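Box 3.1 — From sequence to structure: CBS domain-containing protein
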Amino acid sequence: MKRRTPVSEIMSKDLIALYKEDTLETAEMLFKKNGIRHIPVVSGESIIGMLSYTDLLRISFADATDDENSIDTIVYNMFTIEQVMTKNLVSVSSDTTIKEVAEILANNEFHALPIVDDSLLVGIVTTTDLINYLLKQY
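Predicted structure (token representation):
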């Protein structure tokens, strides 16, 4: 296993992002359509928050139904992305080592880290990315 491998080797670079003006319905659709669990919330190319599928589950029945005319619409209209997203983010640069990223994720209660270079969002790394990397080592 390489000890100094940068996180840029395993991070997702083709990002799906939300803007704070987007709706929670849009967020749910993106989560389900793309099979993902974390979406950065951006202003321009800068990250201002992170929305997780778990955040939606806390306020809705998002995984209980695939019915597009569900009660979620009513609940989602009560909140904005900015109210639900995590705002105080920990981020790392693309040259941070995978080991350092693993330590950050292991010692915190979140499962995704935005990758930011020169104030610009360039990627995201998740615990799933780390597990897949480790599996390839064996």
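Summary of the box: The first strand starts at residue 18 and ends at 19.
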